[in-house]
Structures are given as structure tokens and as C-alpha cells.
Design goal:
Layout: H1 2-11, H2 13-23, H3 30-45, H4 49-56, H5 58-76, H6 82-96, H7 98-109, H8 116-144, H9 147-168
Helix pairs in contact: 1-8, 2-3, 2-8, 3-6, 4-5, 5-6, 5-7, 5-9, 7-8, 8-9
């Protein structure tokens, strides 16, 4: 579910960010920044996930990073100016960038030999369907309700997923002495 939300959040900007820009007092060109401010931080944190996973454990990252993503989605819905919205999109990217890497690693290899193909299929399904349904869902919700409502729903779904992960995922090993390669 979190991976589906990540990819949907990536694509919702096509129709929604024009409305956000008009609502928070931005220009039409700011809608591009609304998208980039999410994608760049997400891309920057993805290469660090392996080292952070080894140092802190999968469960820690699978709860903290998506929790940050969910909270930033809810707070972005409260934006009253473009700078606040961009700041929350950056935080969404920082937390959300962990989601596909953790989900892909967990579903693609840590479910065990019997469930490995199913896990890889779920990763692919979430990536493709999240990207494909993000635009029409965003258009429908933005036109019929509000872009704010859409971000609140995404945030609350992410936080619900975090609660489920925290409750059901077994504790994973970590190595506090593991050196993270930052470059």
C-alpha cells in the first residue's frame, strides 16, 4: 500500500499542482517546482537506504520514513503559501524516497523463497498501477473535492500503513557499527 501511495503521490501533481499554485498564491510555473521538490529528495535518499537498513534495521526505516511522508502529506494540505507547500513536498520526498527501496527489498527478497515471485509481482504492480491511477484519481478528487482533501487522505493512509507495519512486522536485526557510505 505504501509503495502504491508513493507512486500515486509522484503522479498526482499533473492535475493537482495547478490548483495548488492558484490556491496558495503561486504562479503556474511553481507547479513544476511542486513536483521537483518531491522527486529530487526522493532520488537522493534512495541510494542510502541499503546502508541505513543495515545500520538501523528494516522495521525502523519502514516505520519512521513513511511516517515522515504521511505527516508531511497532512501538513502540506494546510499550506497557505507556495514556500510552505514546497517545504512539505521536500519532506515528503525525504520520507517517501525510502518507500520503494524498502518495499522492493522486503517484498523482492526477504519474504522467503516460496513468496519471492509474488513479492516481486507486488512491487511491479504497485509501481505501474500507482503511476497510472495517480493522474485520474488526482483529477477526480481535485475537481470534485479539493487538492487539500487528497493530500490528507494520502497522509492518513500512509500513517495507517505505518501503524500496521509497526504492529505486524517482526523486529529486524541492525548493526550500529555499520559504516554508511554517504558518497
Amino acid at each position: 500500500m505504501l509503495e502504491l501511495l508513493f507512486f500515486a503521490t509522484d503522479s498526482i501533481g499533473v492535475p493537482a499542482h495547478t490548483y495548488v499554485s492558484g490556491d496558495v498564491g503561486g504562479t503556474p510555473y511553481l507547479s513544476v517546482w511542486f513536483m521537483v521538490s518531491f522527486l529530487v529528495p526522493a532520488a537522493l535518499v534512495m541510494p542510502l537506504v541499503g546502508g541505513l537498513k543495515a545500520r538501523y534495521g528494516v522495521k525502523t526505516l519502514a516505520t519512521l520514513a513513511p511516517g515522515l511522508f504521511g505527516l508531511a502529506c497532512v501538513f502540506s494540505s494546510m499550506a497557505t503559501d507556495p514556500q510552505w507547500f514546497i517545504a512539505m513536498r521536500i519532506v515528503q520526498g525525504l520520507g517517501g524516497g525510502f518507500i520503494p527501496a524498502i518495499a522492493g527489498g522486503y517484498l523482492g527478497g526477504e519474504l522467503g523463497k516460496d513468496y519471492n515471485p509474488m513479492g516481486k509481482g507486488l512491487v511491479a504492480l504497485a509501481g505501474i498501477s500507482g503511476s497510472a491511477i495517480g493522474i485520474p484519481i488526482s483529477a477526480l478528487v481535485t475537481w470534485d473535492f479539493s487538492w487539500r482533501f487528497m493530500y490528507v487522505v494520502i497522509g492518513l493512509l500512509a500513517l495507517a500503513a505505518v501503524f500496521i507495519i509497526a504492529s505486524l512486522m517482526p523486529r529486524t536485526p541492525s548493526d550500529p557499527t555499520f559504516k554508511i557510505d554517504w558518497l
